[in-house]
Amino acid sequence: MKKVMLGLMLLTCSLASQAQPAKEDSVKELMNISGAEQMGTMMMNQMIPALKQAIPEASEEFWQDVMVSMDMKDLMNNIIPVYQKNLSEVDIQAILAFYKTPSGQKLLASQPAIMQESMQIGQQWGQRVFQEVMQKHAKLKAEKAN
Known about the structure:
The chain is built from seven helices and no strands. The chain has helices spanning 2-18, 24-34, 36-54, 60-69, 72-86, 89-99, 102-145. It is extended, with a radius of gyration of 24 Å.
């Protein structure tokens, strides 16, 4: 009976240690090594042309001020709790260990290109879907009019 109790205690301690929320420093390290801030900046840079089209009267000086005011560190600090909510400290450490391997390094180096190409594909897909929806709607509208 003592062995069973000891086994249960060890299992409980092991599970409890694995369920510890990720530490803020660990999350920051993961975000740093994964280039999260750089990806956020890249996404923002890709959003600016669409914003410029939406506000064509805005001056270039305005857009420069907008870019300067975008504080990626503030954004990253707001995202840390999301990591902590979804990943344990054990998870973060395992991911960091992977990123330090040759395959992890290759993934990290490839991610910006993958992101950029994926976003372009997503935009093209979205435009196609939008056109299909508009055509379908126009067809239904025409059918109802007849």
